[in-house]
Amino acid sequence: MSQGDDSPMSREWNYHPDLPLADPSIFRWPPDPGFLVRWFARNWLMLSERVMMVILAFVLYVIAYPSLETAQNFAVGWVAQVWAINMALVIVIAGGLHWYFYMRKGQGKRLKFDHKEQAKGNRLWNFADQVRDNMFWSLTSGVAQLTGFQVVTIWLMANGYAPVITFAEHPIWFILALILIPIWSAFHFYWVHRLLHVPLLYRRVHSLHHRNVNIGPWSGMSMHPVEHFLYFSSLAIHWIVASHPIHLIFHVIYEGPGASMTHTGYEDLLVKDKRRLALGTFYHQLHHRYYECNYGNQEMPWDRWFGTFHDGTEAGTQETRARKKRMYGQ
């Protein structure tokens, strides 16, 4: 399919990449040095979504978030400041993506995975509206818990309870930590996600997120409060591993507003019919449709190693459905 083609590929999908899905994990065996070099260049030497998040983290550290000196004592002022910044980030990023792709229809259905539009008039959703439901959970529990983890971490750093580094003292680790944060996030996400698919937790907690079969930007942070707590606990790594506030802010953006990018429902942003920014992945889109597969993301190999990988083919769908029957005794 050409980059700008918006014609349907099948009855099941409006668009999908070449199938079966390739293995893009940096941990695949045997190691491929050439692939690792290309992966690093694509993610860190070009204007990728990760580089953009790091730049945003640096800017917010300098001009927006409170300093460590300010955060030495809990006070309503600086805590509210962190909450307000996070609220603005989620509204601008999730809202901006929703406006461009679903309201303005900036690239039509080109590179959109699902045929359908966001649901309206269905009592499955609060307010009988998928987008409003997603906004409610994202902007209430989502922003509050993201802020809570960030506030506690800033306070721990400010008072010497969490190790803090500077670029001048540890330049190699400073840069390496930025590269490792998304990898750590992917590792944490896989295991938390597997836990959330235990039948009891799935029914009472995770099913709220999974109402979003046809995902959109506001779906990324639309979760039950218990799931928000488990998901954002990834930020607790800064309590024990030496980092800088810029690392924390990058991690906050990656876990919070970044989820809106990965749930856009489109594979890439097109500019003049060329792919300019990676967004969602068909890998995770398959999880939202078939549930018991692809619990992690493409960067980690766990789904392949533990037999929960769906490669996008009909055979993969049948294997996933059989696994689901075994899990739920149906």
Automatic annotation (TrEMBL):
UniProt keywords, alphabetically: Membrane, Transmembrane, Transmembrane helix
Domain Fatty acid hydroxylase: 179-308
Transmembrane segments: 51-68, 80-102, 136-158, 170-192
A Pfam family matched in the record: FA_hydroxylase
Location of this chain's protein in the cell: Membrane
InterPro entries named in the record: Fatty_acid_hydroxylase, Sterol_Desaturase_Related
Designated name of the protein: Sterol desaturase family protein
Organism: Albidovulum litorale
